[in-house]
Amino acid sequence: MFKIGINGADLEGRGTGVQRYLRSVIPFLDTTGKEYIVYSRSPLPHDSMPQRKGISYRDTGHRSGYSYTIWEQRVLPGYLKNDSIDIFFSAGYSLPLKIKIPTLVVIHDISFAVHPEWFGRREGLRRRFISRKSAQSADYILTVSEFSKNEIIKHYEINPDKIIITPNGVDFKAFATVSPSEINLVKQKYNLSAPLILYTGLLMERRFIRELVEAFVLLKKQMRTMQLVLIGRNQLKDKDFLKKIIKGNGLEQSILHLEYCDNNELKAFYHQADLFVYLSEYEGFGIPPLEAMACSTPVLTSNLTALAENFHQSALLVDDHSPESIAKAMDKLLSDEKLRTKLVKAGKDKAKEFSWENTAGIINSAIKKIIEKKLSV
After folding, report:
1. Model pTM?
2. In a domain, 115, yes or no
3. Among 23, 80, 8, 13, which residue's Cα sits nearest to residue 356?
4. Residues 27-41, buried b or exposed e (16+ Cβ, 10 A)?
5. Residues 161 and 208 in one domain
6. 362 plus 320 within the same structural domain
7. Residue 189 maps to which CATH number?
8. Residue 313 gets which letter from DSSP?
């Protein structure tokens, strides 16, 4: 019986990308001849965690009084040693650097290394240093696209042979199936109108949020009833940008910003939307466009990085990110029914290509390679 430890700290609190990743792959991990222990800094809600034979959850009780980095680097290794863990897996960019067991780490992208100006000094230094060291020490690096693999090779000088492309997935059935009552509930709760343009994800400078909002203002002059919904934490440098542009243009009823919504509401928003916009200067994969495609919502995205790699035939791509160009592209995708029909079909087909079961299958294969290597020694 091989014991495999998983860093589950990202399963705490509200949903993040790494949390979604873990919640999605844990149900498909191969437990034959294996025992998985998921470690967290505080108790995880039992009813919302994937429950399976061969997978257990352990609270180390160190959320208060310890930063994440101290917990990961100093506290967690002691638990791994005491539990005689054979292999350690982290889905969140970094590993405990001093552990002496085989490891796998998921590095979704290295934007913090390529564009340090996007991150605070302390956070940027932590991510750049620990992520690089983790990549160097890991037995295998799992990354989500060809683009990210090439970035890791280029900036971290890593042997390509230990990097495994492990695409993200989408629960197609869950996103494609939403009842009319759920959609109507969200429509009434938030007083939604059509046409509705949707964005989900962190509000960041690199995601062209300013340009998107300014493009909406331009387009709104032509379509009086249209609405823009932004779902995600505000991490713009100017935290008051949205408030100022909404008030300055009298758009209190036209632009809605939600810091967070649960999965049921999120799916309803995707289905209610007439257009999903996800522009970005740098992405390792791009899960939100895939979710929108599963919901039969046409997508506008950037002809850059992994977005171009993944969605070049299933979305309308833009090269110019000026407000005028974005407004023109949104107008085209809202009004051209032939294009909309084409992209809805292509998007659904694309979403079906990516599943979390396939993602977990690649993780299972990497773990199997490590086990076979250990047994051959």
Report:
1. 0.94
2. yes
3. 23
4. ebbeeeebbbbbbbb
5. no
6. no
7. 3.40.50.2000
8. T
* Same domain flag for 227 and 239: yes
Whose CA is closest to 138, among 107, 113, 179? 107
The pLDDT value recorded for residue 88 is 98
Judge whether 377 lies within some domain: no
Q: 180 and 105: one domain?
A: no
Residue 104 three-state SS: strand
Residue 280 near residue 300, CB atoms below 8 Å: no
Q: Which residues pair with residue 256 across a beta bridge?
A: 229
Claim to verify: residue 330 and residue 183 sit in the same structural domain: yes
Query: Do residues 307 and 361 share a domain?
Result: no
Owner of token pair 């990097």: 163
Same structural domain, 134 and 204: no
The beta-carbon contacts of 147-155 under 8 Å, at least 24 apart in sequence, are 147/284, 147/305, 147/306, 147/309, 148/107, 148/108, 148/109, 148/110, 148/284, 148/285, 148/306, 151/109, 151/110, 151/114, 152/107, 152/110, 155/110, 155/113, 155/114
Spell out the residues 6+ positions from residue 96 whose beta carbon is closer than 8 angstroms to its own: 72, 73, 76, 77, 80, 88
The structural domain count of the chain equals: 2
Rounding to the nearest 10 degrees, give the CA dihedral for residues 273, 274, 279, 283. 60
The count of residues in the chain is: 377
Q: What is the pLDDT of residue 122?
A: 75
Q: How far is CA 79 from CA 69, 71, 85, 103, 167, in A?
A: 15, 11, 9, 15, 30
306, 285 contact by CB (below 8 A): yes
- Residue 192 within any structural domain of the chain: yes
What digits encode the pLDDT tens for the residues 126-172?
Answer: 888 999 999 999 999 999 999 999 999 999 999 999 999 999 999 99
- Tell which phi-psi region holds residue 350, choosing left (phi > 0), alpha (psi between -120 and 50) or beta: alpha
Domain holding 51, by residue range, is 2-169+356-371
Q: Across the strands, what pairs with 228?
A: 197, 255
Q: Is 190 inside any structural domain?
A: yes
Residue 304 has pLDDT above 70, yes or no: yes
297, 235: one domain:
yes
Q: How far apart are CA 64 and CA 68, in angstroms?
A: 10
In angstroms, the CA 373 to CA 377 distance is: 7
The helix or strand, by DSSP H or E, that contains position 229, with its residue range, turns out to be strand 227-231
